[in-house]
Amino acid sequence: MADLSLITPIEYLKGVGPQKADVIKKELQIFTIGDLLSYYPFRYIDRTVFHKIRQLDADMYSAQVLGRLIGLKEVGEKRAKRLVGQFKDETGSIELVWFQSITWLQKSLKVGSAYVLYGKPSVFNGQISITHPEMEPYQAQVKNLGNMTLQPVYSSTEKLKKFNLDSKGIQKLQQTALETVFRQLTEQLPAYLLAKHQLMDQARATVAIHFPQSQEELTQAIKRIKFEELFYIQLKLLKNKQLNTKKFRGQIFSKVGDKFNTFFKERIPFPLTNAQKRVVKEIRQDTVTGAQMNRLVQGDVGSGKTVVALLTMLLAIDNGFQACMMAPTEILATQHYTGLKELLGEDICNIKLLTGSTSTKQRRIIHEELENGSLDILIGTHALIEDKVKFKNLGFVVIDEQHRFGVEQRAKLWRKNSIPPHMLVMTATPIPRTLAMTMYGDLDISVIDELPAGRKPIKTVHFFESSRLRMFGLIREEIAKGRQVYVVFPLIKESEKLDLLYLEAGLENIQREFPLPEFKISIVHGKMPVKDKDFEMQRFVKHETQIMVATTVIEVGVNVPNASVMIIENSERFGLSQLHQLRGRVGRGAEQSFCILMSSNKLSKEGKLRLNTMVRTNDGFEIAEVDLELRGPGDISGTQQSGVLELKLANLATDQQLLSEARNSVIDIFKEDPEMTEERHASLRQYLARKTDGIAWDKIS
Ligand code: ADP
Ligand code: MG
């Protein structure tokens, strides 16, 4: 057995073999002995705690009772056949029920004997009972208690159970694995880090997570393993960043020129907020270092990211480069285009729009101007990344609403210039700091954490169906004041037909309440041809209509400062970040704005928490924290590429402190020993060499 190691395929472990190995691979994605050892229990049963029968209730996850079996009989016929036992202690008695292994149980269980019973209490006919409890004779149990206080529980599947790999069976494999490879569990983290963060060593932690001797030992083992997971992700991310900085020479924007100055001194209609100034400065500093910038700007809806992007694009143009800005939808790209032209005026630079519906003739002009360098700024959708689109000298790329674009698309923009352009990624979905550090650990992060002055916080209320008339009343009042209103219906991908039904029924309802000619309504949904959509949008933008009934297509970026009411129908069906995005469509002007969350009376616990969170706060970062706790990082878009999902134990919502410690340790290492040549970092250097071998760096940004 001496030649087995952590990377030995699982079938060579004693007691596994090819057949079992197949099932283990398929069901658990465990391929090696090392994989098995990092398949951790998902909970532990505390075998030191005993319950009295009187304490049992159906809410308990599990219970352990010491008592006596006082009766056992078979009841029912054929498929309804079952074995029913009576079990009692000094506080009462309960029924035990078995549907399987009846003959065997009748032979092995002894009426009158003492047992330690373990199982999940449930209610049947108003009585507490336990189905399929585990029964251990009292004497045997006592002997076991000495060496096993916390019993690990591994999740298993029906298929695995057919191969005797229920939780207990997996535990047995873990035991074999540990006995086989224990000596090879050598420490990989530098000793000084273990000392500094008071971490248990690797071998001990691996044993303790599977066979904890005490709660304290388990806590220490978990801490060690979580730290390690977070540490290695950070190590990889910061290594990428280091390599990028070295590998990619960046354009140098050495001067601030006429275009920037003209706009900044003469045209800009408002003073920048301090946060905006800070971010512009951060970008400016990045663009003079000679290395390529990769920066993420996080800012809540309405925090004014667009003008920051504009200022920095002007900087690029002043230094002889072209710039482009990519948005995820045609509506948004068009709006950026009109918005920027309005801000800039006609004379500062040549700016054009390229989307799927740009005419062939216009396209030809754009291609030509791009290649001869006379086009300064190109705004567009993903049409920008097509190979036909060639720039003379692309120096600066802005990507708005980042999470809708994949890494691959970002990389394509990089390659549009021999020296890659600086990249500015803007996202309006605030991400908790911990998640940002992990998802975008290789980007620099700027935060616009301040809204322009004079904005009144949006008032948010949650109405049930019974308050529908009050909701209509508010719409009427606001329209009378000259404001405009959004009414949004959910869009559920699985059933587009149903979505339209909702929308149509809702629309009829609203048309009845707000009839022509006094009221005019725009309607926008995803199934409409782009032209019609734009037409309807434009009517609303120009205030020819007062109400916009829409599905979530208006979620991103739409800017109509005169709109002051956002009604969200069936709001319980939306996720938190979506609700927050939608709400951000109002509150953009100086007027008091409102958001009304309509919902049915039937709310799940989570649904209620989401709506309450919306009512309680306008702070996108706070909302993002709750969202992360509710959904976990796996459901938050963009995480797939980030390594977050490699986390087995660490939890980004609850382990923020540990994550900071891990990240700071990595930052220190890159500061003190950037190439990891010191002896104390030898194992990390080897780790990175293994992990980064053969990676195509241009695919990673
Ligand atoms: P977002 O960050 O959501 O993209 P925008 O850039 O669309 O926000 O800005 C929202 C609105 O706020 C726009 O109408 C914009 O002109 C305005 N705005 C941006 N910065 C300021 C500022 N410093 N003071 C006042 N209004 C501002
Ligand atoms: Mg925006």
From TrEMBL:
The keyword Ubl conjugation does not apply. It is an enzyme of class 5 (isomerase). Its EC number is 5.6.2.4. It catalyses: ATP + H2O = ADP + phosphate + H(+); Couples ATP hydrolysis with the unwinding of duplex DNA by translocating in the 3'-5' direction. Residues 286-448 form the Helicase ATP-binding domain. The keyword Phosphoprotein does not apply. GO terms for molecular function: DNA helicase activity; hydrolase activity. InterPro entries: ATP-dep_DNA_helicase_RecG, DEAD/DEAH_box_helicase_dom, Helicase_ATP-bd, Helicase_C-like, NA-bd_OB-fold, P-loop_NTPase, RecG/Mfd, RecG_dom3_C. Residues 474-634 form the Helicase C-terminal domain. Keywords: ATP-binding, DNA damage, DNA recombination, DNA repair, DNA-binding, Helicase, Hydrolase, Isomerase, Nucleotide-binding. Belongs to the helicase family. RecG subfamily. Plays a critical role in recombination and DNA repair. Helps process Holliday junction intermediates to mature products by catalyzing branch migration. Has replication fork regression activity, unwinds stalled or blocked replication forks to make a HJ that can be resolved. Has a DNA unwinding activity characteristic of a DNA helicase with 3'-5' polarity. This is ATP-dependent DNA helicase RecG.
